[in-house]
Amino acid sequence: MRALTWTAMSPPVMSRTATSTVNLRRISLRRDRVCVRATASSSATVSGGGVVEAVELAEIGERSKKWKWKGEYSVNYFVKDSPEEVTPASQTVLLVHGFGASIPHWRRNINALSKNHTVYAIDLLGFGASDKPPGFSYTMESWAELILNFLEEVVQKPTILIGNSVGSLACVIAASESRGDLVKGLVLLNCAGGMNNKAVFDDWRIKLLMPLLLLIDFLLKQRGIASALFNRVKDRENLKNILTNVYGNKDNVDDTLVEIIAGPANTEGALDAFVSILTGPPGPNPIKLIPEITKPVLVLWGDQDGLTPLDGPVGKYFTSLPDQLPNFNLYVLQGVGHCPQDDRPDLVHERLLPWLAQLSST
Questions:
Q1: Rounded to the nearest 5°, which phi and psi values hold at 51?
Q2: Residue 95 in contact with residue 120, Cβ under 8 Å?
Q3: CATH architecture label of 55-357
Q4: How does pLDDT run across 49-105, given as a tens digit for each residue?
């Protein structure tokens, strides 16, 4: 099982050792819209010489609200308005986490964003403090539908979707299906190719592992085996080791991060969600959806991501987009792993905040 890792942001995939190392410098690629950003230090809390202020988990819990999706499922969400006067540059954003994560995975970004923008964050069904209904068949399409319904019923204004990993893919699907100005723009952080590994069959590494992945699918449908595996995966020491391999900045893999992942994994229905997601259909391929999106898109990609590596089919496709589509901007973040927003929030904010500020004038 060493060749597979289950993480808080993406389904089980091969470890970074199966991928080639990408050596990058501070250079410009593909005109001005694809850039490689060199890291200035190893600390995730350094931002322009200052400290990235994280929201306390207790505050997130106290300020979270519930929304009934389809009149049946309780969905947890968080909102923080800008304390400053609303300006033409102010935006409304919705943060969408990755596999196994939840709203607190954005704790290092909420304050920076909410200084000038209204920030919503949501726990997708099956994760965090949202319902994990028994027998529910989780799909990328259902999460995209949830996002659009949330915008229509709760946010009720044009919104920029910001997602990580499978959360990014859910945002891509939602944007491709939305009409009018409901979705104003997209920010994709290391976008996943699907809900699970079966989506990226074009990758030779996945082809080699496909028999093993299909065997794991079969084993996960055996309740006893699935329970034993899930219990091992959510063990805090194991989680910390897995996350250390996922993050470029090891200092940010702390007890708080482990608790963010382990806590919801110990709630009722978490095992069923885990099995359904890993054994279900991978969902729509982002490569087929992206050309349908005409809204502005910002893509940020950690170059140390072994889950969706730059030299894999999904990474290669996204790095080619700025040459093909004028509404795309992409920056590669050096020394950053699969979860840039928590790994190196300062580098994310350096690109994200100016992009949001200028969006109203484009």
A1: -115, 135
A2: yes
A3: 3-Layer(aba) Sandwich (3.40)
A4: 347 899 999 999 999 999 999 999 999 999 998 776 667 678 999 999 999 999 999
